[in-house]
Amino acid sequence: MDTLASRRKVLQMVFYIIATVFVLRLLFIQVLNKNYKQLANNNVLRKVTLYPSRGLIYDRNGKLILFNQAEYDLLVVPGQIKKFDTLNLCNTLGLEISNFKKELFKAYKYSRFKPTVIVKGIQSELYAQLQEDLFLYPGFYAQVRMVRTYPIAAAAHVLGYISEVTLKQIDKSDGYYQQGDYIGTGGLEQYYEKILRGKKGVKYVLVDVHNREQGAFNEGQMDTLAIPGINLHSTLDIDLQQYGEKLMQGKVGSVVAIDPSTGEVLAMISSPTYDPRLITGRERGKNFSKLYADSLKPLFVRPLKASYPPGSIYKPLLGLIGLQEQAILPSSTYSCAGAYSVGSSRVGCHHSGFVNNIIEAIQHSCNAYFCMSFRKMVDNNKYKTVAQGLDSWKSYLSSFGIGVRMKTDLPGVGYGFIPGSDYYNEIYGVGHWNSLTIVSLGIGQGEIGLTPLQMANEMTAIANHGWFYTPHLVKKVDDDTSTVLKIFKEKNIIPIEKKWFDVTVEAMKEVVEAGTGQIAQIPGLTMGGKTGTAQNPHGKDHSLFICFSPVVDPKIAIAVIVENAGFGASYGAPIASLMIEKYLNDTISTPRKYLEQRMFEADLIHNKFQQTPVH
Amino acid sequence: MIDKRKTNNNLDWVIILLYGVFVSIGLLVVYASSHDDSRPFFDTRQLYIRQLIWVCTSIIIASFILVTDNKIYTTFAYFIYAAVLIMVIGVFFFGHEVNGNKNWFEIGSFQLQPSEFAKFSVALVLAKYLGNQNNNLKSNKTKMVSLALIFFPALLIQLQGDTGSTLVFLSFFLVLYRFGLPGEFLALGLGVLTLSVFSLLIDKFTLIAILFIMAGASLYFIKRTKVAYFVIAGLFICASLYVTTTNYVFNHVLRSHQQERIKVLLGQEVNVKDADYNVRQSKIAIGSGGFLGKGPLHGTLTKYNFVPEQHTDFIFCTIGEEYGFLGTTLFVSLFLFLLIRILSLAERQRSKFSRIYAYGVASILFFHFLINIGMTIGLAPVIGIPLPFISYGGSSLWSFTILLFILIKLDADRLAVLR
């Protein structure tokens, strides 16, 4: 027709080109680029974590001491609310209407389609009531949540608690934990986390654009079930623990009781303690910060972490080492003049008079005798220098678990402190110190420090005449394949001859029968013990006592420390002996009731404050 | 013997069949993207049931067009044009506002969008005007009148806030081009478009510097006559002025959501989630379809409403997600086939009116195809215009049906008269 006819071709070409461009683009996004599939799955697939129930903990007699209880959270999806009786709902839950409405408005502002928790931690009794009426409130849902529950308010420090994982813990967990998960913190909850927590399950669900669940993905083929946590059987005797906590009321200090034949810890008390129920459930945050701010540090685990100068309770150890090293003989004598004086050095002694042998020295806790023994030992001819002598002394103490970290199944087990030659070389310079410089180590003062757990273990090793099992808190895991408890079946042998233990045990028996610890006597029971009175720079002396009973085939060894309470015999010995009596006889004999009463009532914390007000 | 002059013996069944296929695909994907299982299957609140009603009425309209005399369109083209314009203006007074666009009539529970009908009325009126042997696009008067016929309804629709429908009128440039508008105009149009895009992407002083260098360079290659100097200097000055004003227009004339959509297309960062959300979700839905697709009614993003407006402007996502690359390629090919078929129909018309009208139909359908599919796969800006015959919506289905069936009627009568 005209030259314009060619323009039809141009238009046709444009149509073809555009269609081709579209097909190429579609080829790219639909076939070549695989990202879009992943993005689509991210859109519609949600991974829902199924939380297993946490393992339970029983005491040594099968009493349940830690379990899970259902608590309910009330959720609301604001977009689904229909008209409902606000007053009725608030009355059922015991809430104020104005607060409730405020929360509801907040939820509405957050999202109309996503569920928001509006009431937390509804107890199961209340939930039972609510459940019946829940159909009246469309848009409201209940969601169950498991809370750790302590049926007996005791052993908070041993059991520990659970708390939300920190970012650091998430990083270290190889992807196991996610934000918002709970993890054991402190105590058995932390140490046995991997056993108690079980294994999380996972469920994949499809969701719509408003995040509402629309059913299972792939018919649930990729889903896994949650595997519940494994139960633990603790070595604790919860009745003894509770009794001990009652005795320690109003006092700062620790008690550790061990069954010497197995190394099982029967009681581990850190005073002041706290009710473990305070830091679960609704009021957790508030209570936790209160405990954290308390000047008496109730959250501090004293039996494991506090390091005290042992004072005289360490004398039996020194005697044993001295005998083994042949620095002294059982029959070594010493004439005590109420002090150990060499040159300008003077170590005072409560006792004075002639000491016939080591038994009398321990019985009367003669400072001068042990200063002499200590010096003889480190200056022993066997060793070229005092440094070697001191390090030998230190290695003996290590074999008792002192100055080293014992492999007890709790987190944060302390080392205590035993100074070696390095330590003094650092302070005084090599060759610028001698046995006299460090003579206070001979009476358990100075730099030396023991944790209450180490003191109890010392008693255990002596009661056993030279061996011990590492003290531990769990005797059985409800899972045959677990090997965590294997190390607690290995005997630790102390490189000191049994005959020297015989002598020491004899001496410790005398302490209770006719020495400084007579107040600990229990009718019908044989007992060995040792008092200690540790000087400390922070105030009145600490009262210490270690003992075991019966002397033959011992059933319990115990260490008690009461801070700023004076002589070992004043608080340490009564509390230790009462616990032994309770454990072995189950009741306190009538003549000793007054002692029990006195211990229950003694409130050193507040008395102390009256004497020296703290401002 | 078959009388070729009788309408029914000359119907182009290929196009009618294509129409049937597209409308069926439309019903299927509207069902997939909008069915609500909590309601009964036959419930007029279900969008596919409504669409079915629109399809049925469309078939009635189509039949009506085929049995009536084509003189209605050829003789009364100006009248139809005027009537539609009055309807469009009527919206200003009696209209109903949806999504900030006041371009709906409400009749009972159904809504009608007069701007949709402006398209075929402009196609008719252009055919009528340019079909007159006295009017030639080489003359300036013809150019002016043609542009006025196109832009007057476009302006009214823009005033109602429906930028998408307004832009559709640009498609008539293809018709003007085909029937004699000098190619330079198309080149100029493309040049302006390119310049607009670059002026939004690059700093205006940099762009002017680049233009200056280009002007200088072009003098190197052409014969340096006085006229050439003037033309190039003039072009440079106009371009520079244009660049400086584009920014102003962009920032002060366009609405913020239009600015965002253009920015998204240009790949510039936009903080507002809504702007690129549609395109992103749409690309994800189409991309996740893979080669074979997830199968009918198995599009997870479709089912769970991840792509907003999926049953209307983003309906192509459903095809992409459920039928995969195979389905989309087939769809694009079918549409291309329809366009090419219309072009060949156009060329066999003896009447200039019919031929121009046919080009109008092809251009409108092409523009919808270009923009609608282009935006779902991220090649065109998000301009809310429907995919012909597929998208949910009565007005658009009616208007496309009328548009196409007038062509079929004209084509069927092509041997009856010589106009």
What does this structure look like?
The complex is a heterodimer of chains A (615) and B (419). Chain A has 22 helices and 22 strands. Chain A is of the alpha+beta class. Chain A has three domains: 42-63 and 152-234, Penicillin-binding protein 2a (Domain 2) (Alpha-Beta Complex); 68-143, Penicillin-binding protein 2a (Domain 2), CATH 3.90.1310.10; 238-611, DD-peptidase/beta-lactamase superfamily (Beta-lactamase), CATH 3.40.710. In chain A, the strands form seven sheets. In chain A, strands 2, 3, 4, 5, 10 and 18 form a six-stranded mixed β-sheet that branches. A five-stranded antiparallel β-sheet of chain A has the order 12-11-22-21-20. Chain A has a three-stranded antiparallel β-sheet with strand order 1-8-9. Mean pLDDT of chain A is 87; it is low at 609-615. Chain B has two domains: 7-181 and 275-412, no CATH class; 188-253. Chain B has helices spanning 13-34, 47-67, 71-75, 77-94, 114-131, 140-159, 163-168, 172-178, 183-201, 204-221, 226-252, 256-265, 273-287, 300-303, 315-347, 352-376, 394-412; strands at 96-98, 101-107, 110-112. In chain B, α5 runs antiparallel to α16 (352-376), α8 (172-178) packs across α16 (352-376) and α10 runs antiparallel to α11. Chain B is globular, with a radius of gyration of 23 Å. The mean pLDDT of chain B is 83. Classes of the chains: A alpha+beta (615), B mainly alpha (419).
